[in-house]
Amino acid sequence: MSTPPAYRGRFAPSPTGPLHFGSLIAALASFCDARANGGEWRLRIEDVDAPRSREGASEDIIAALTAYGFEWDEAVERQSERLSLYQNALDHLRTIGIAYPCGCTRKDLESAPLGAAGERIYPGTCRAGLARGREARAWRVKVDGGTIGFSDRLQGWQEQDLARDVGDFIVKRADGLFAYQLAVVVDDAEQQITQVVRGADLLASTARQIWLQRKLGLATPSYLHHAVAIDARGEKLSKQTGAAALPRDPLPALLRAWQFLDQPAAPSLPTSVAGFWTWAISAWNPRALPPVAMLPAPDLGRVIAV
Ligand code: GLU
Question: Is the Cβ–Cβ distance between 13 and 68 less than 8 Å?
Fold first, then answer.
């Protein structure tokens, strides 16, 4: 195996729509953190969920990132081209006896309690085998007892009891698609990602990912979960909540994203995108990041005063 790099970060957008202010924050934070540490920064298009992916969205995202002055190392990776890697991981989980077929429908699980991660806690119906007349739909993993703990670089010590808070979770869905939790673990390891910088909406997924890493014998990267931008209704900016595509003019939006992350004020306002990045990478201060899960998105239409 090649020597892992000292710092390799990544940005992993799902191509469900154009880049918006919420995804700009994740791109900016992961990029600045990587470059400020002399690290590599990879771009991975998370299109494993093909039905949610929108035609042309990955090209739009790549064009927007380019226009905004982001520069990534190596070729863009696409999950849709890596399915055999996810299958190998599932095969391994089956071989070690912790993946099992599940015949439950959404309706079967309707009355299961909601866990800390906001998803239904699987009651373990198919754990000991499919009931007669039931067909395998999805693949789940048997989570064992005990707490998964990790120290988030920003949010501090985190703990989750998977058995209590999540239950046996899905690694391959009933529609035949590999689940995000499995794909992201395989990708981060295979790309030798050492630092994951992403939105705090994924904080509750991290214990599952660390658990999978351990079962698959993979390294655990370091994690930093920054605040996500929410709209006036308190919902995370996303394609689903109707977040607007980024404006054509990068500089005001970059400065807004910088301010959103409580980063140091510039002594004089950068006048070009290149000037912004030179300054931002040198001034990046992860200790100044707001240690909260969410913050209201700014109005991109308003005049910027840094
Ligand atoms: N594809 C995920 C998203 O767009 C990000 C996954 C990750 O950073 O682990 O929300």
Answer: no
